[in-house]
Amino acid sequence: MRSFWFNKLSVIFGPRPPVSWLLLCLVSLLALIAVLGSSSSNAFDSVTPTPVPDIYLNYRRLKEQAAVDYLELRSLSLGASRQRELGLCGKERENYVPCYNVSANLLAGFKDGEEFDRHCEVLRDRNRCLVRSPKDYKSPLRWPAGRDVIWSGNVKITKDQFLSSGSMTKRLMLLEENQIAFHSEDGLIFDGVKDYSRQIAEMIGLGSDSDFLQAGVRTVLDIGCGFGSFGAHLVSLKLMAVCIAAYEATGSQVQLALERGLPAIIGSFISRQLPYPSLSFDMVHCAQCGIVWDKKDGILLIEVDRVLKPGGYFVLTSPSGKLHGTAVGKRKRNVLTPMEELTQEICWSLLAQQDETFIWQKTVDSDCYASRKQSAIPLCKEGHDVQSYYQPLVSCISGTSSKRWIPIQNRSAGSQLSASELEVHGVLPDNFFEDLRVWRSALKNYWSLLTPLIFSDHPKRPGNEDPLPPFNMIRNVMDMNAHYGGLNAAFLEEKKSVWVMNVVPIRARNTLPLILDQGFTGILHDWCEPFPTYPRTYDMLHANGLLSHLSSESCSAIDLFLEMDRMLRPEGWVVLSDKVGAIEMARMLATQIRWEARVIDLQNGSDQRLLVCQKQFIKK
Ligand SMILES: *[C@@H]1O[C@H](CO)[C@@H](O)[C@H](O)[C@H]1NC(C)=O
Ligand SMILES: *[C@@H]1O[C@H](CO)[C@@H](O)[C@H](O)[C@H]1NC(C)=O
Ligand SMILES: *[C@@H]1O[C@H](CO)[C@@H](O)[C@H](O)[C@H]1NC(C)=O
């Protein structure tokens, strides 16, 4: 237990008598203020307008002052100098994504493509600085306008990348002065994406693509998503389509998709499993995604099978004859191509083939595997991928004995899980619905706090006036410790036009399967490591209890906050909810990384506090 938090917090119980004595006085003072302060009404339950007691503000200010004094006193007593604001990184770091330094990976001995994989263990740069925004960075347009038009100065892309006629989804891009426009919805330029989506629907036997949901297709993993136009179309059909693509230094598909307000994550099919449990997605889509599916004995295809739910679809679009060495279309009589052989072995059936598109369906019948030939790819041992966090790829079939083996066509309609579905996840309906109730009211409160006014000298008390909507667009939200996904559910109920990346920290209870089964997106993540995304890709970060959770781990809190700053768009928001000790610590760190920050006291006698922060738009 040599963790950062532990050291800081343990100071209170430190051995040196004079310091302890001073601290005891301060703690008493704080306690006294807390008692006096708690006599004013709850900051969160004042729905009916009541006059703001000035005394409340004074006490709060006094309390904050006392807390600051306490921290300064402590750092003095430790002989440490006052912590200063961190500086900005150099211009070369504007689009910095840690863990993907190819030259460093090569130096470390990774080869055969593994140098392009995520390697956080290689060379963690200890130079702590704030990733700066490009010179001509502008706040993105609000959703949905921002889906179709982005500022070209916000993303790293070369002129050649605009002009290269890549896949169908890439050709939909036009450059207008300092903007990039994607004409996907109105069909002004090409109607390719709509036609393509309709074609896929027809190939799996549906009347049109608006029937996807009814047919059990809610979540789609889109591998190598071009610039996100197919995903944008699926999102308009109320599907959760998440783009996954390898790290790219320029013209990144993931950076563009996120800039458009579409779910995306950096991830690659190289040598490790994706950070998802088995049986996660209803459809996996690859249109010219550059992966050779039948190489290495099909180990990459087996990974797709792992994350695909029973009855789910694998859609592959690739120019015929160019299906990387296999040519499913051009078969010799009675001789199976490697792709045909592989898909049979993993119990997929080829549903349809049209033009350059092939669709396979994973079996709904877990007995299918028993009826294969002896030499076929074996089944994995039970429970091997419970917490699959970048584990090496395996050549065995996962999930066949899981309680979550439920064909997508058999799922109950709507996003609300039934009691029996909750039981599969070991969750009691009472707990689940109580959690949702808590998040409904928490979201209303958060939303009313997200206004720059709360940082003014006369903070608006939440609930006193009609809550203002946030001045800035909020579209990409990350819940850094998502639990059951309650915040996501509350956002949906409130019909806010956001999507949530639900992150389940490793070593916390693995609720990711429950989150995904609600039709949300999410990912497992170790918060002692950088998150696989580009800088400035989230508008709001939320973390409930994460700091307390991390207090038992030996990673640095300042690095976590720097990483949050990297992910956050200028003028983006951070909402942290935690125990008072962790929040005071967070407040100090927030100052170091130049966030505006304010502690909100819930004043219901609990030791929970909120810290609402806004990243400044540092103009140079
Ligand atoms: C990547 O690694 C190389 C070699 O170790 C190093 O010189 C370079 O500064 C690193 N780049 C970044 C962006 O950290
Ligand atoms: C799925 O539904 C079909 C038809 O209603 C039923 O025959 C089958 O047993 C169900 N499968 C599972 C695993 O519940
Ligand atoms: C106080 O409010 C917070 C947030 O609504 C809640 O999580 C906590 O349980 C409450 N504490 C008590 C003692 O009621």
UniProtKB/TrEMBL annotation:
<keyword id="KW-0808">Transferase</keyword>
<dbReference type="GO" id="GO:0012505">
    <property type="term" value="C:endomembrane system"/>
</dbReference>
<dbReference type="Pfam" id="PF03141">
    <property type="entry name" value="Methyltransf_29"/>
</dbReference>
<keyword id="KW-0325">Glycoprotein</keyword>
<feature type="signal peptide">
    <location>
        <begin position="1"/>
        <end position="37"/>
    </location>
</feature>
<dbReference type="GO" id="GO:0008168">
    <property type="term" value="F:methyltransferase activity"/>
</dbReference>
<dbReference type="GO" id="GO:0005737">
    <property type="term" value="C:cytoplasm"/>
</dbReference>
<comment type="similarity">
    <text>Belongs to the methyltransferase superfamily.</text>
</comment>
<dbReference type="InterPro" id="IPR029063">
    <property type="entry name" value="SAM-dependent_MTases_sf"/>
</dbReference>
<keyword id="KW-0732">Signal</keyword>
<dbReference type="GO" id="GO:0032259">
    <property type="term" value="P:methylation"/>
</dbReference>
<keyword id="KW-0489">Methyltransferase</keyword>
<keyword id="KW-0735">Signal-anchor</keyword>
<dbReference type="GO" id="GO:0016020">
    <property type="term" value="C:membrane"/>
</dbReference>
<keyword id="KW-0472">Membrane</keyword>
<dbReference type="InterPro" id="IPR004159">
    <property type="entry name" value="Put_SAM_MeTrfase"/>
</dbReference>
<keyword id="KW-0812">Transmembrane</keyword>
<keyword id="KW-1133">Transmembrane helix</keyword>
<protein>
    <recommendedName>
        <fullName>Methyltransferase</fullName>
        <ecNumber>2.1.1.-</ecNumber>
    </recommendedName>
</protein>
